[in-house]
UniProtKB/TrEMBL annotation:
Protein's UniProt name: Helix-turn-helix protein
Pfam families named among the record's database cross-references: HTH_18
Keyword Nucleus: no
Residue ranges of the TM segments: 6-24, 31-52, 72-89, 98-117, 143-163, 184-207, 219-241
UniProt lineage: Bacteria, Pseudomonadati, Bacteroidota, Flavobacteriia, Flavobacteriales
Length: 402
């Protein structure tokens, strides 16, 4: 067995394993987790594809060649969206982001003609793929030759990496790298590894076209294989010797012990909603949440409250919020206390009062004050009137008559 296959097997196993974990975990920023999962999955499947080519697995090579290759055009967009989302703490896909996946559509259209070829022609192409190690294919079956498609795909990756580097170098990460050293090192490592790897693929695509499929090009293939093995080895070493980064962004662990040492106070037991912050921290333990994660959780909570309005449900609890953002119950309670300056009950009722003030003038002609209040998430009259007077200093009737 070729030594390179050992590295490719280990690399594909790790990348695909991490990708599947990120796809299904509910911890951390799920949007960024999914993007990173797609990036790792593409890279893992690409290594698996090279293993099948090297071991003459005709059936699997055929499947990957016509099914996986067009989707690989989504890889550069995912890199850019992940870096952008990481830097600007994004947590959802924007409609305008679909623009980045237009090349995938063209790649799918380009491959359609494959299915209209006769079986003998398709077999000949796959055998050519195996013989030439995918560097150059003589047969043309789409709008572009395989060599041109390979070149365009790698050119697209290089362009998106340039955009990603530009975002990174202009971001606050550079200025504040000492305060966010783990986040800074993670983004820098990703960009360096992806840039180095894909630049070499880009050089390979140029050699493909220049050589015209001559046997000399296969010597260049050996160089690429050695280089890829070295990169896989670097990635493996980095993963196992940087546990803080691995647990935070790859394993996405709930455990806080690997976080950067910026601490907030929390209680050992669940903090009751009716306690003031000063009373709630008598029994303390240190739970580490770094500045980046604080902003991440805070933006996630604010987005959840603004877009989904869970406070309109009278049965909405602290436990519901904690499960949604992926924090332990007691930590979520203290997080709300510290970041929003109120206990959970007053904080939620504040949202309900604000929504009531917006809605009541629209519905006052046909609805009573109490009926609108109940629609805003309050479950009884006493709670609503007490909350309203606590927040506004007057009763609802006095407020609207003033």
């Amino acid at each position: 067995m070729d030594y390179s296959l050992y590295f490719f097997s280990i690399g594909s196993f790790l990348f695909i394993g991490f990708a599947l974990h990120l796809l299904f975990t509910k911890n951390g920023n799920t949007y960024l987790n999914r993007l990173l999962a797609v990036i790792l999955l593409f890279r893992g499947l690409k290594m698996l594809y090279y293993i099948f080519v090297a071991t003459n697995q005709k059936y699997f090579v055929s499947f990957f060649f016509n099914s996986f290759d067009p989707l690989y055009f989504a890889y550069p967009a995912c890199i850019y969206l992940y870096i952008r989302g990481f830097i600007y703490n994004e947590n959802r896909f924007k409609k305008s982001d679909w623009f980045h996946f237009i090349p995938v559509l063209f790649a799918i259209i380009n491959i359609i003609s494959w299915y209209f070829l006769d079986a003998s022609t398709r077999d000949a192409i796959i055998l050519d793929v195996i013989a030439k190690k995918t560097l150059y294919i003589d047969e043309n079956y789409g709008f572009f030759s395989n060599a041109i498609t390979f070149f365009l795909r790698n050119l697209l990756i290089i362009l998106y990496l340039i955009f990603s580097w530009k975002l990174f170098l202009k971001s606050e990460f550079i200025k504040n790298r000492k305060e966010n050293i783990i986040s800074y090192n993670w983004v820098l490592f990703l960009l360096i590894i992806m840039s180095f790897t894909n630049f070499n693929f880009f050089i390979t695509s140029i050699v493909n076209i220049a050589s015209g499929g001559k046997s000399d090009a296969l010597l260049f293939y050996n160089y690429i294989i050695i280089l890829l093995c070295a990169i896989i080895l670097v990635v493996i070493i980095f993963v196992f010797y940087n546990p803080k980064i691995t647990y935070r962004y790859v394993f996405v662990s709930k455990e806080p012990f690997l976080q950067e040492q910026v601490f907030v106070e929390s209680t050992e037991l669940l903090i009751p909603d009716n306690l003031e912050i000063s009373d709630a921290v008598d029994k303390k333990k240190r739970i580490s949440i770094n500045d980046f994660d604080i902003e991440n959780y805070k933006s996630k909570i604010l987005f959840y409250m603004t877009e989904e309005k869970p406070y309109l449900r009278s049965d909405f609890t602290l436990n519901d919020l904690a499960q949604h953002i992926g924090l332990p119950l007691h930590q979520c309670s203290h997080f709300v206390n510290c970041e929003f300056g109120e206990n959970f009950r007053d904080w939620i009722n504040g949202y309900r009062i604000t929504f009531f003030i917006e809605e009541y003038p629209k519905k006052s002609a046909k609805n009573t004050i109490l009926s609108v209040a109940l629609d805003c998430g309050f479950n009884n009259k006493v709670t609503f009137y007490n909350s309203f007077k606590k927040m506004k200093g007057v009763t609802p009737t006095e407020y609207f008559n003033s």
